[in-house]
Amino acid sequence: MAASDDAFVPVVVLGALGALGIVVATVRSVALGPALAASASAYAVLLVVDDPPLDGRAVGVAASLVLVGELVGWSRELASPTTDEAGNAWRRPVWIAGAGSGALLVAAVLLAVVDLARLDGLVVEVFGALAALSLLILVVMTARDKLS
Q1: Helices then strands (H, E): number in the chain?
Q2: Which of the residues 19, 22, 51, 99 could staple to 35 if both were Cys, CB 3.0 to 4.6 A apart?
Q3: How many domains are contained in the chain?
Q4: 37-61 as b/e, with b when 16 or more CB fall inside 10 Å?
């Protein structure tokens, strides 16, 4: 996706700050949060200024940010002088893959909900009624647990 002239400079600046912050975060883990926030802000500026239609790229960006954060954290662990317990070498890659897959799923569901909210008519009414029914069931089940 190409940025318009209005969005180009802020996107490039925030993207460069995010990339630089991620490089710094491999040495100083404190920089990871601001680096990921700058990277996400670059995409957010692009969405706000250019107002493109919502599509699967937002899901990919969200999952990529989660994966970058997890991989930087793992690289910091691998660089530490302490050794991992025997047999734990496979757990972190599985966790990272699971976190990336979970981020894809959550972002895809959120995108679907946002897309559904743009519709009018019976579909939205049914979705709202199901959400209200689910909330009512949750409240009743919680109240039963508290009373017994």
Answers
A1: 5, 0
A2: 22
A3: 3
A4: bbbbbbbbbbeebeeeeeeeebbeb
Contact between residue 32 and residue 22 where contact means Cβ atoms under 8 Å apart? yes
Taking the C-alpha atoms of residue 34 and residue 51, their distance in angstroms, rounded to an integer, is 24
Number of other residues whose CB lies within 10 A of the CB of residue 20 = 13
Answer yes or no: do 48 and 72 share one domain: no
What pLDDT digit, counting tens, does each position of 23-59 carry?
A: 998 888 888 889 989 988 988 888 888 777 777 788 8
Angle, vertex CA 19, rays to CA 114 and CA 27, nearest 5: 120
Does the reported pTM lie above 0.70?
Answer: no
Q: What is the C-alpha end-to-end distance of the chain, expressed in Å?
A: 56
Domain end, chosen from 33, 52, 71, is at 52
